[in-house]
Amino acid sequence: MTSHPSVVPVILCGGAGTRLWPVSRKTLPKQFKPLLGDASLLQDAALRVRGDGFESPLIVTAEPFRFIVAEQLEAVGITLGDLLVEPEPRNTAPAVLAAALWCASRDPDALMLVMPSDHQIPDGDAFRDTVAAAIPAAQSGKIVTFGVPPTTPETGYGYLELAEGAPMSSGEPMPLRGFVEKPDLAGAQQMLDGGHHLWNAGIFLFSAEAILQAYAEHAPDMLATVTRAVDGARADLSFTRLEANAWRTAENISVDYAIMEKAQNLVVMPLAARWSDLGGWASVWQESERDASGNALVGQSTALSCQGSLLRSDSNGIHLVGIGLKDMIVVTTADAVLVAPMSESSRVGEVVAALKAKAVSQAEASSRDLRPWGWYESIASGDGFQVKRIFVKPGALISLQSHNHRAEHWIVVAGTAHVTIGEEVRMVTANQSVYVPVGERHRVENRGKLPVTLIEVQTGAYLGEDDIIRYDDAYGRA
Question: Average model confidence (pLDDT) for the chain?
Answer without folding.
Answer: 93
